[in-house]
Amino acid sequence: MDADHVLKTTRSVRLRLDFERPIETSVIEECLEIALQAPTASNSQQWQWVVITDPEKVAGVAEVYRKSFEVLAARPPEERPSYGAEDSRTQQSEGVTRSATYLAAEMHRCPALLLACISGRVEDLGPMAQAGVYGSILPGAWSFMLAARARGIGMAWTTLHIRHEDEVAELLGIPADVTQAALFPMAYFTGEDFRPAPRVPLEQVVHWNAWGQRAP
Ligand SMILES: Cc1cc2nc3c(=O)[nH]c(=O)nc-3n(C[C@H](O)[C@H](O)[C@H](O)COP(=O)(O)O)c2cc1C
User: How far apart are CA 118 and CA 113, in angstroms?
Assistant: First the structure.
């Protein structure tokens, strides 16, 4: 599959998940091998990839996720985290809310979850070191999502369970000095393909040589 097409059409898949179809271990391993080619600070490779296929553990993690989702869902929309991009968020928020609600309710049916982790904690670090920690797991996690998408597997990048990170750590035996960066509930997707999504236009977010200078 053409790289640009994969990059432009790797969507958060929540509704189009085929819970009945198992994911082969070999396919998950193939995607993880690709993830291991991603960059890390000083080539540190402190990442740890927790694959969860035991249905009881999948259900346990899904329950923690659902609990955190309900906290978010109970807030009025204006109090939910916006991460800045109000325009495109408003356009998409209804669809996102519907599919996110579905995922929260059905996550326990996923044949597999992937928890992308990294050794070390960020709480006491300055911004440069924090960027080094998260920057050494997020590229690999995104590579995994892209590789899986190219093989017909859909997922959403999720972080909501991290509100109760310690509960998931206990369930899976993850040591206290390991940071959980993202959780990927995955399944083969149904239907054919995905489309590029509307985004805040480039001219509103690009800066050439100085902040606010929109043209090169
Ligand atoms: C850091 C991060 C955290 C996210 N957390 C969640 C989450 O907890 N639950 C969820 O359903 N989607 C989550 N998402 C997915 C976003 O909602 C999604 O990427 C966004 O709406 C754009 O849609 P698209 O990925 O289909 O283009 C997260 C995405 C990122 C990058």
Answer: 16
* pLDDT by position in tens, the chain (length 216): 799 999 999 999 999 999 999 999 999 999 999 999 999 999 999 999 999 999 999 999 999 999 999 999 898 877 776 554 445 555 567 888 899 999 999 999 999 999 999 999 999 999 999 999 999 999 999 999 999 999 999 999 999 999 999 999 999 999 999 999 999 999 999 999 999 999 999 999 999 999 999 999
Ligand 1 geometric centre to CA of 216 (Å) = 31
To test ligand 1's pocket by mutation, which of 102, 115, 157 has the most ligand atoms within 8 angstroms of CB?
157
Distance CA 157, CA 173 (A): 22
The angle formed by the CA atoms of residues 168, 170 and 173, to the nearest 5 degrees, is 105
Q: Whose CA is nearest to atom 21 of ligand 1?
A: 96
- In the CATH scheme, what architecture does the domain 3-193 have? 3-Layer(aba) Sandwich (3.40)
What residue ranges do the domains of the chain occupy? Answer: 3-193
Whole-number Å distance, alpha carbon 144 to ligand 1 midpoint, is: 15
Partner residues linked to 182 by β-bridges: 116
Helix (H) or strand (E) holding 93: helix 86-106
CA-nearest residue, atom 11 of ligand 1 = 100
Q: How far is the CA of 34 from the centre of ligand 1 (A)?
A: 22
Does ligand 1 have an atom closer than 6 angstroms to the CB of 100?
Answer: yes
